Amino acid sequence: MMSAEGEYDCIVIGAGVQGSFTAYQLAKRNKKTLLLEQFILPHTRGSSHGQTRIIRRAYDEDFYTHMMGECFELWAQLERETGVKLYRQTGLLVMGPENSQYYTTVKNTLLRNKVPLMVLTHENFSQHIPHVKLAQGDEAVVDITAGVLYADRALKTAQGQFQKLGGVIRDNEMVTDIKPGPVVTVSTSAGVYRAKSVVITAGPWANKLLSHTGLQLPLEVLKINVCYWREKVQGSYNVKQRFPCFLLTEGEESNEHIYGLPSNEYPGLVKICYHMGSVADPDQRDMQKDKSDIDILQRFVKRCLPGLVPEPAVVESCLYTITPDRHFVMDTHPTYSNIVIGAGFSGHGFKFGPIIGKLLCELSLGEMPSYDLSPFRIRRFLEKTKSAL
Ligand SMILES: Cc1cc2nc3c(=O)[nH]c(=O)nc-3n(C[C@H](O)[C@H](O)[C@H](O)COP(=O)(O)OP(=O)(O)OC[C@H]3O[C@@H](n4cnc5c(N)ncnc54)[C@H](O)[C@@H]3O)c2cc1C
Ligand SMILES: O=C(O)[C@@H]1CCCC=N1
């Protein structure tokens, strides 16, 4: 099946947040673009579904905080263009041991980059944040511009804007083969397409697709139990009561982050998750039944959030695709410069969707990327392997 319709400037594989924003950016640049998705849209099998995500500048690395400057503007621009509300400011409460390296680094990154913030101490904490117990020896800082992104709505909006610009989405069409070359040939369950360049944004399926190009990345897929916890008094942790998003960098329960969002999408329920899960096959996600993360969360809720019932009321599933250093992969294929890869968003990539779309679009057009991509290059993995030999 080959036709003039089957020839594109670019084919983007995977209509999660990163693929959808990449396709949108390409269409904005007048490129004839096809966005392929294996499932019927919208779906809940990957990493981008669900009602909400946290957006924040609070990071331990300057490069993320820097990118978020433009990214906040791009989210606001999309809201203006479409009239759809995508972001709600809530602030992000970051809590951690006063002298711990991670907490101190996050606080210093905020200070160095002049991000609006408020430092809370044991003396003034409960006045600003009721219904939360700050652990002895912990300190807290609020990243004031942080908030909630309406994730499902954002995905639909990016895809809609792409289509309005003439972009083509073909869902329920799984890519089954990629043949590299000056013109790349992409075969799916329904047809064959050709393009000058291809962007692979396949989330947890990245390595499955990359195997057609002779490349494998050190990615691990984790199933995350997305837990919602019931308020004892409805509304006490609600977004309308100005309860913020929060992040505990490390605590009595674990050295991994625990994070939460105010009650909003489900009345009376607060979303709180553990930033770690168990290894899963994305095609067999529901076979992974480990609940040790829920045990950790229950202990945290009992200790720090006395206004919540310490038993999850709703548990949903979502997948992380993590790299060894938890930094993203944004690069061209080491052998084929017209194949671009966006992968390994390590459980924190949603907020960056608009800027990642812009960067992957620039890479696929052979342009100099707007930001230094060295933390995200594939060669960092190869260098590690070589030096270990
Ligand atoms: C529980 C949870 C909480 C999170 N919280 C936050 C947060 O608060 N803030 C934040 O910024 N980020 C957060 N993240 C991370 C963020 O959601 C992810 O980094 C982001 O969604 C990754 O998007 P993606 O496009 O790379 O992957 P995906 O959304 O998985 O998209 C990949 C797409 O590719 C498709 N695909 C795969 N293979 C094929 C094929 N062969 N043919 C066609 N299509 C294919 C898949 O079906 C899928 O739709 C969270 C993630 C989870 C799971
Ligand atoms: O990216 C985010 O903000 C969330 C919270 C911290 C851990 C991962 N995801």
UniProtKB/TrEMBL annotation:
GO cellular component, one term: peroxisome
A GO BP entry: L-lysine catabolic process to acetyl-CoA via L-pipecolate
Keywords assigned by UniProt, alphabetized: FAD, Flavoprotein, Oxidoreductase
Cofactor(s) essential for the protein: FAD
Pfam families hit by this protein: DAO
InterPro entries noted in UniProt: FAD-dep_OxRdtase, FAD/NAD-bd_sf, MTOX
Gene3D superfamilies: D-Amino Acid Oxidase, subunit A, domain 2, FAD/NAD(P)-binding domain
Catalytic activity: L-pipecolate + O2 = L-1-piperideine-6-carboxylate + H2O2 + H(+); sarcosine + O2 + H2O = formaldehyde + glycine + H2O2
EC number of the protein: 1.5.3.1, 1.5.3.7
Entry-linked NCBIfam families: PRK11259.1, soxA_mon
Role description: Metabolizes sarcosine, L-pipecolic acid and L-proline.
Family under the similarity heading: Belongs to the MSOX/MTOX family.
Name under which the protein is recorded: Peroxisomal sarcosine oxidase
Lineage of the organism: Eukaryota, Metazoa, Chordata, Craniata, Vertebrata
